[in-house]
Amino acid sequence: MRRAWRDALGVAVATSAYGVSFGALAVAAGLDVWQTCVLSLVMFTGGSQFAFVGVVGAGGLAAAPAAIASAILLGVRNVAYGVRMAPVVGGGPLRRAVAAQFTIDESTAVALAQDAPRARRVAFWVTGVGIWVGWNVSTLAGALLGDVLGDPRAYGLDAAAAAAFLALLWPRLRRRQAIAVGCAAAVVATVLTPALMPGIPVLIAASVAVLVGLTDVFGERRTVAAEPDDVPEREGLP
């Protein structure tokens, strides 16, 4: 449980800090402070939010349909997270409806990094709620102080979330199949990102994991050891 709390709070602090960047970029793209805060309160998925303000900032109000489409495409991945996290969250429809708001990359990753079911549940809620609170506070700060802060990337905030993800992912890259999936997905996303609209490279890269999982190309074959000769039979059973 201590590990679950430590991982969850660490990721929550690292990810929340990057909300300053979103607040500053959203206001620079032409959104009001209240519009920026509503996006973080309701949409609450960093990739979709950055895609939305990026497209609006480049094309203005006329680009709103494309911005919405990009945000939706990036948000589709959360559906897969929801399917995986449903057994972890448990409870009835009301609890799952509340959990849907906090089902994001970080809460899913931190939860699945734990071993015990209770630790997974604690990690999910602490990470999700912690990031939601911190992200909205930092979004407001970035929207109000964007001009004073300058480019948030100068402080390395854009690397905070990626570093937290790498810290969670690295211990899981022990088997040949996991390493193959990670490398292949990274290559696919890197190659396709400059050519396709935001969201699509992520979905295509995610399909790599599905394809490898279905085919089990790099799976490690396990053999069942033969029963030792000195094991006595019990009630006629081997």
Structure description:
This protein is an all-alpha fold and 238 residues long. Helices cover 71% and strands 0% of the residues. It has 12 helices and no strands. The two termini are 40 Å apart.
Secondary structure elements and pairings:
Layout: H1 2-17, H2 19-28, H3 33-43, H4 46-59, H5 64-75, H6 77-89, H7 93-101, H8 105-112, H9 117-149, H10 160-169, H11 176-192, H12 200-215
Helix pairs in contact: 1-8, 1-9, 1-10, 2-4, 2-9, 3-9, 4-5, 8-9, 11-12
List keywords for this structure.
238 residues, mainly alpha, 12 helices, globular, disordered C terminus
Task: Summarize the structure in short.
This protein has 238 residues and is mostly helical.
Query: Mean pLDDT, nearest integer?
Result: 78
Distance between the termini: 40 Å
Number of beta-strand segments: 0
Radius of gyration: 21 Å
String of helices and strands: HHHHHHHHHHHH
Q: What is the global morphology?
A: globular
